[in-house]
Design goal:
The protein is α/β, with parallel strands linked by helices. The chain has two domains: 5-152, 3-Layer(aba) Sandwich (Rossmann fold); 193-378 and 410-450, P-loop containing nucleotide triphosphate hydrolases (Rossmann fold). It is built from 14 helices and 20 strands. It has helices spanning 5-19, 35-48, 62-76, 93-98, 106-109, 132-141, 183-188, 215-221, 226-229, 233-253, 266-278, 294-303, 336-344, 366-373, and strands at 24-29, 54-59, 88-92, 112-117, 147-152, 167-169, 174-176, 179-181, 194-202, 205-207, 210-212, 258-262, 284-287, 308-311, 324-329, 357-363, 414-420, 429-430, 437-440, 444-450. The chain has an eight-stranded mixed β-sheet with strand order 13-14-12-15-16-9-20-17, sandwiched between helices. Helix 2 (35-48) crosses helix 3. The longest helix has 21 residues, at 233-253. The chain is globular and about 70 Å long. 45% of the residues are buried.
Length: 452
């Protein structure tokens, strides 16, 4: 199998560290770079060197589980169904925490290589302080595996707790990684698409009787909430119009290019789908936790030529739909972790496509502006520190002195803006969930953030 340069480099380094008796290897690679293939190759080489008997993988969702099982089975040329004759098995973290019948005692009698995908879902370095998934990893798995490969594209947690099994540098609690392959390098190498983050603003917002020159200013100095903006039909319609225009451009070269809308609720997802179909003549599907079989909906969309999939938290990290090129971010969740995970859904490359760009479109809310400006930092400095936690200490563990710290890199984020004129004679909108009266009376403008 022909590996990308970073995959070969990372796999080789992991094997070297394992040969030197280092038990745990932590790899940071940007979403869409091909972490699963790299991990499968490490497993294959450990089998060939007669270093392991089985490989066991853990994933954050069923979609990621299916992808890992397929990739490992292909690379190892052996099934990964966890039964007799298999090279191993793939499980979700939820199964690890909830199964009453799981028996992990074979870890004590066999040489097992464990792969944790998106290890940041497991939080805490001590069982009594860990979340449910982290506690199971610490109690049942971490101490008994022969080798452990942990992977992540976003090596931090929104609750700022330490990631399970990770090591941190003093005094700033910067996570220490054995290998780093960030978004800047991935774009430069042609491994991931070049993302452009388009944040839409308005230069005259009337909130009650007071006028503001930007969304961020209005939300900071009035009763206007982001949740109210997300249900304002005028604002949402303009954002969707911008996203549709971008998808039309992408489909001129790539006829099956698709868009993703991350909605704030099932109700709003239905409204958005109606706007896309009735006003912009777009084909759509919708998927949410209310679906009987959401994975089937996602799988059908993956190979169809439907233009949009409107989702409520279902198209998350690890969901592999390479034809996605445009994302309309209309979620209430505004953490940097979620922002990066959503962005990762549109970064996966497809062969023979000359235009290697992807577009994430949202509103110019304060935190989203900050996230876009920090896009080049693989671990944003503002969120890597945690309080009242001790770094994990496991006998025999050794780590590289190279920390996952990109703060020394030169910031190459560029900002530009455009004015988009609209009819300013728009009646004020009275929102159904509050007595607040506000209207968007000015010209729309777009702030575009790009790494290059």
């Amino acid at each position: 199998m022909q590996l990308r340069h970073w995959q070969e480099s990372c796999a080789s380094l992991a094997l070297q560290k394992f040969q030197r008796k280092q038990k745990h290897f932590l790899a940071l690679a940007t979403p869409g770079a091909g972490k699963t293939v790299m991990a499968a190759v490490v497993a294959k080489r450990l089998f060939e060197a007669n270093e392991i008997d089985y490989v066991v993988c853990f994933a954050p969702s069923v979609a990621v589980l299916n992808s890992m099982r397929s990739t490992f089975s292909t690379v190892l040329a052996r099934p990964m169904h966890g039964q007799l004759g298999a090279a191993g098995g793939v499980f979700t973290y939820q199964y690890l925490a909830s199964s009453k019948t799981a028996d992990w005692s074979f870890l004590r009698t066999s040489r097992v290589f464990i792969v944790f995908d998106e290890i940041h879902h497991c939080g805490g370095d001590k069982p009594e302080m860990a979340n449910t998934w982290g506690r199971e990893v610490l109690i049942n798995l971490g101490a008994h595996a022969k080798f452990i490969l942990s992977m992540t594209g976003t090596p931090w947690r929104s609750d700022l707790a330490p990631i399970t099994l990770a090591s941190y540098l003093e005094p700033d609690k910067m996570i220490r990684c054995d290998y780093v392959y960030g978004i800047y390098d991935a774009i430069k190498d042609g491994v991931c698409r070049l993302p452009e983050v388009v944040l839409i603003d308005n230069d005259k917002l009337q909130v009650n009787e007071e006028a503001f020159s930007s969304l961020a200013t209005a939300m900071a100095n009035s009763e206007l909430k982001y949740s109210e903006l997300l249900i304002d039909k005028q604002a949402v319609r303009y954002l969707l119009k911008t996203a549709v225009k971008q998808l039309i451009i992408a489909r001129q070269e790539q006829p099956n290019a698709a868009g993703l809308v991350v909605a704030s609720s099932v109700h709003e997802a239905a409204n958005i789908r109606h706007i896309l179909e009735s006003e912009f003549n777009q084909t759509t599907v919708m998927v949410s936790y209310r679906e009987t079989d959401p994975q089937t909906v996602i799988e059908r969309f993956r190979t169809s030529d439907t233009q949009w999939i409107v989702s409520v938290t279902m198209i998350s990290e690890g969901t592999d739909i390479p034809r996605l090129r445009v994302c309309a971010h209309l979620s209430l969740v505004r953490t940097e972790l979620f922002f990066r995970q959503v962005l990762g859904r549109i970064l996966r490359m497809m062969p023979n496509i000359l235009n290697k760009k992807a577009w994430l479109i949202s509103f110019a809310e304060k935190s989203l502006l900050e996230f876009a400006q920090r896009l080049q930092q693989d671990i944003p400095e503002q969120i890597v520190r945690f309080e009242k936690q001790e770094s994990p200490s496991e006998p025999g563990q050794q780590f590289s002195d190279e920390a996952c710290n990109s703060s020394a890199q030169k910031d190459k984020t560029l900002t530009s803006s455009k004015n988009w004129s609209v009819n300013s004679q728009v009646p004020a909108n009275v929102l159904s969930n509050s007595g607040l009266l506000f209207s968007l009376q000015g010209s729309y403008r777009q702030k575009v953030f790009s790494i290059f």
